[in-house]
Please model this.
Amino acid sequence: MQFVNDLDLKKQAKELGVKIWQTPGFLFIILGVITIFVMTVTYFISKNYDSPEFIIISESLVVVIILIIGNSVIRLIDQIIRLNKMKSEFVSVASHQLRTPLSAIKWETELMLSKFKKGLNKKQLINIENIDSLTTRMIKLVNDLLDVARIEQGRMIFKKSPVDLYKIVYEAKEDILPLANARNVEILLNCSKNIPKITSDAGRLKMVVDNLFNNAIKYTTNRGKIEIKLIKKNNSLVFSIKDNGVGIPEEQQGRVFDKFFRSDNIVKYQTEGTGLGLYISKNIIGQLGGEIWFQSVEGLGSIFSFSLPIKN
Amino acid sequence: MDKKKILVIEDEAMLQRALSEFLIDENFEVVSAMDGEEGISFAKAKKPDLILLDIVLPKKDGYQVLEEIKNDEKTKKIPVILLTNLESAEDIERAFNAGATTYLVKSNYRLEDVVKKIKETLHI
Model:
């Protein structure tokens, strides 16, 4: 599969931001073709001329060509790695710098609401509450970008300890109840008894569960119903969350876990969302030794599930 | 009950002001330090009940401040809550190894939650 992907030069060129003839894949093919060509020529020359000088000269030529092309491949790869590193570092530095003014806005707004709430009229109160929720959203975006940078730099650190997944799920449900009530969405929690503890990272798992809960509610319109299951299956725990929301169009289902992906139909329902939540979730579950998957029918709803090994 | 004294070591003027104002409203006495050196001298001179400490600070950074406070007999028992926007695993580990009581990421905490943590730490 990887080999076939390597041969898709158009895609490679687009991803790397270079022209097709500059992609490592293309240069390797050229390298091969030239080597075969020169070898063949050498063969015929040596056959007809029977002279050692000719063989040495043409073989040297092959070596020089291979070195030149090989060198440009290596330089290109080197450049790409450097650019990637710079990009990740830029994201980390910019995000940290953004956090200070964002904290300041958040705290000033909170201060204003706590001190002067009584003096504000309804309209002013809505204005300030909007600033507050927008700031929270921006902080969430910055946090997500930092997580993406960490994932891409391989610096996301996992702290493993015995984890009670049921507790995480239950608490996530309690936390989201106000939002669910506001949107008229019913939540049903269905858990088998005796869910064993697993060795995992509680903080990261909470991020994944919160993200799946949020998605389920966000993309479910009025009078929705969300069913959550947590069961033990063989040597794994399987969590699933089913909603009767907007679903994901079939032709876009292959890109659900891609970075920044948001399906066409949800963009219409919800402008809020970064397209980073599921990308981050997939990486977390993968790093914790589990799997994440979904089933979805547009207009009917989705089921998102993940499994985690009990003994890791 | 006596007012508890909080030393806030924070160089960003707006964050310093917002924190102090909120703490005063919550009936705490506040001492403000705008850099690491000032923070250390106030920790020794003013005997605060708790210290809120940023990491990125002029003159001496939060780790140096924490180290000096924890190495001084007079100040080592004062609980220190790190309040910063850094949150890499190395930063957190370094802070706890140096003797921090709690580690909070500014942008993820409301002032109300910061006060809650302070009260928890002081058992009030």
